[in-house]
Amino acid sequence: MSGESFDWVEFLGRWQAEWVPRAGEDGDGEQSAVILGCPGADEAAIAALEERLGRRLPPSYRAFLAVSDGWHVEQTAGIYQLGGVADIDWFRDPHDMAALYRESLGEDPREEEVRLAGMWERALRLETDSDMSYALLDPGDCDGDGEWALYVYKGWSGELPDRYPSFRAYMEAMYRSFHGDRVDRPDFVNATTRAQDGHVDQARLLALRGQCEQALSLLEEARSFGRPRSAVLLDQLRHWLDPRRLRDYGYLAADPDYLAEILPVQAMTQTDGHRRRSGDEDGRWLAMMAARGVDRRTAEETLAAIREGTHRYAPPGPWGRAVAEARELARWGSTDAAWTVLRDALPLWQAPGPLLITPVGLLGDPFLGALVTPERGREILATPRAGQTGPAPEPVPDLDPPGLAWLTEPAANGQRREGYRCVWAEGVDPARLPALIGEEGAELGPPADMRIASWTAFRAHEREGVQPWEDRALVAAGRTKGGWAFAFDGHCSRHLGTRFVSPAAAASVSGRAVVVWRDTQSSFPGGGPAAFHLSVAEHGKELYTFTVRGTQIQRSGTIPEALDPVRLFRPDEPEGAGELRALQALHTELGLGLPRFALTHGRLHTFTTRSWARAPQAGEAYAYLQFVRHKT
Questions:
Q1: CB–CB of 557/514 below 8 Å?
Q2: Local confidence band at 621 (pLDDT 50, 70, 90 cut-offs)
Q3: Contact at 8 Å (CB) between 408 and 576?
Q4: Cα gap 66→57, rounded to integer Å
Q5: SS3 562
Q6: Spatial distance between the Cα atoms of 86 and 79, rounded to a whole number of angstroms
Q7: Could you read off the pLDDT of 338-378 as tens digits, one per residue?
């Protein structure tokens, strides 16, 4: 960034012409006539300064001094006045900051950390009036144009210095800050504010036409000037680019035009299952919403609905009808089909007001919000909507692979694969599964992220009236593409034992039912290898079953050739080869599948099954071990 190519006369003149006090400050004639700059230094004075310093100044700072020999920055927090050629000098680290920063360097510090530690000893100090702050140009942090980075250190903050790539970049940032500090003044209107407000209007139309990148650029610049509307529009675009990062939409949540879209998304900040909580966070959130003008009862009801998974995003019109159709698909696991419905209907979405440019309320729906990946978020932003036209984006590929082979994929982070077990029922609505294979009184629960639900659910033995030998499973319920209802436990740590009772017969009231259980290899010394079990029933009667553990096979009934365990599980093969072959055969022969995305990233209804193990009989013994970790 070369200083010679920048028009300092125009830039500083515009800044001076636009200067007014901040909102709330005394605006009398004397203060309004503040002179920000000084006459420029001549070449001889600048050359004399460089001779005194023993270095040529960076281009943008040198060009600045030739136009104004100093400047009244009036930064909100920190620097107030930049000196001229007679004032500036080397900093010389009077507070021994270099030693302090070097002490904090680790064994393998990054290049920028080493550079910052040495900055204090070689920097050029520019400010002459400040609040315990310094403006330091660092000749050791130089770019290809000869520009020195400028660091602003606020001594009272305890934070690292703010870095700007050049003096020009710093001054442009201070000019934008000057605008942001005065945005609340109704009389602060000038060519710059009008231009930036025009950019906001232009960006809004570009965003609705699906031209996200152009809109982002305009809004980012307008937001840096603090222009009204720029932040809320920009945050919407960024939200879809990173859907899992929760955002604060400020006072928009209290506006009746936007409350139904925004308040549920705000409530999600309190229900994120991965956050650590302390104190009465709900109370603080409710107080914050009340301060913004949200009715407390409305906020409480919305928070409860989000936490319980009962909230429904229900916009009006054709878009709303598509949302309802997509939710019904997503709630049973058909996430790709649900997304197709939303994608096709998105052009019909209508904004409830000018401050909404995306259907952000979709992210608050417990079933539909979970569908939005960053790639799908970009697809939303690239789709023309709200009456605007433009080219449709290339559809994002479906996320669910066919069949069951994905169950053999390696676990994340190289961890040991968890066991899984599943019941498929033909001709059954998923809502009937709790009555068929659930514990007494079981009902479908609200949508849950199974990764979190499996960690937080009570173990069977921890519940009153449940015996230690029982093996009740928390399962996710849904429907496969082939129309089979399923109940899936993807985080099974139990081992298939001799007292296992297959739920296949109970699930087969309307046709066939299939049960698959793959447990993990025992972690105890001398424990057995992993096991794979298959049982198939029809109209209440078990047809055939087999269990493979290592080289041992137990079987019963007439097993079709395609599912014969001898053919599927072969000796001297790598671990998992037989499992993969069996899962592929189940997909080919019976049409079985499972929705990977819904089970690993989405939300599904859950219920607790009856025990997968029978009670010990006379002469049978069992041991139950419980490990408790104590903090020391």
A1: no
A2: low
A3: yes
A4: 12
A5: helix
A6: 18
A7: 999 999 999 999 999 999 999 999 999 999 999 999 999 99
Q: Provide CB contacts within 8 A for 365, sequence distance 6+.
A: 264, 311, 312, 313, 323, 327
Q: Which of the pair, 489 or 496, is modelled with greater confidence? A: 489
pLDDT tens-digit series, residues 184-240:
999 999 999 999 999 999 999 999 999 999 999 999 999 999 999 999 999 999 999
Query: In whole angstroms, what is the distance from residue 47 CA to residue 67 CA?
Result: 15
| H helix or E strand, kind and range, residue 172 | helix 167-181
Alpha carbon distances (Å) from 569 to 299, 523, 576, 588: 57, 22, 9, 17
Per-residue pLDDT at 49: 97
Dist. CA 341–CA 353, nearest whole Å: 24
* CA distances to 230, 260, 300, 420 from 499, in Å: 64, 52, 47, 18
Question: What CA–CA distances, in Å, run from 530 to 420, 555, 570?
Answer: 11, 17, 15
User: What is the spatial distance between Cα 626 and Cα 316, in angstroms, rounded to a whole number?
Assistant: 53
Residue percentage of the chain with pLDDT more than 90: 79
What's the CA gap between 290 and 100, in Å, rounded? Answer: 45
Q: Residue 547's Cα: distance from chain center in Å? A: 42
What is the percent of the chain with per-residue pLDDT over 70, rounded to a whole number?
A: 90
How would residue 24 be classed by pLDDT, with cut points 50, 70 and 90? confident
Joined together, the tokens standing for residue 277 give: 């909580």
Which token pair is 357?
């440019």
Centroid of chain to Cα 184: 32
Q: How far apart are CA 261 and CA 358, in angstroms?
A: 10
- Report the DSSP beta bridge partners of residue 16: none
Which residues make beta-bridge pairs with 133?
154
Return the minimum-mean-pLDDT range out of 275-289, 367-381, 426-440. Answer: 275-289
The C-alpha atoms of residue 130 and residue 22 are separated, in whole angstroms, by 18
Residue in this structure with the two tokens 């603080």, named with its chain if needed? 284
Q: Single out the residue of 580, 585, 454, 598 nearest to residue 514, CA to CA.
A: 585
Cα 105 to Cα 450: distance, rounded to the nearest angstrom? 42
One DSSP character per residue, 29-61 reads HHHHT---B-PPPPHHHHHHHHHHHTSPPPHHH
Q: In what order do the strands lie in the sheet containing 71-72?
A: 71-72, 79-82, 127-130
d(CA 98, CA 101): 5
- Residue 518 near residue 532 (C-beta atoms within 8 A): yes
Could you please report the per-residue DSSP string of 318-387?
Answer: HHHHHHHHHHHHHTTT-HHHHHHHHHHHGGG---SSTT--S-GGGGGSTTTGGG--HHHHHHHHTS--TT
Model pLDDT, residue 489? 95
Cα 357 from Cα 419, distance rounded (Å): 44
Helix, strand, coil abundance in the chain, percent, nearest 5: 40, 15, 45
- Please give the Cα distance from 362 to 85 (Å, whole number): 58
Write down the pTM of the prediction.
Answer: 0.86
> For residue 377, which phi and psi values (nearest 5 degrees)?
-60, -40
Distance CA 66, CA 4 (A): 11
Of 353, 360, 351, 343, nearest to 236 by C-alpha is 360
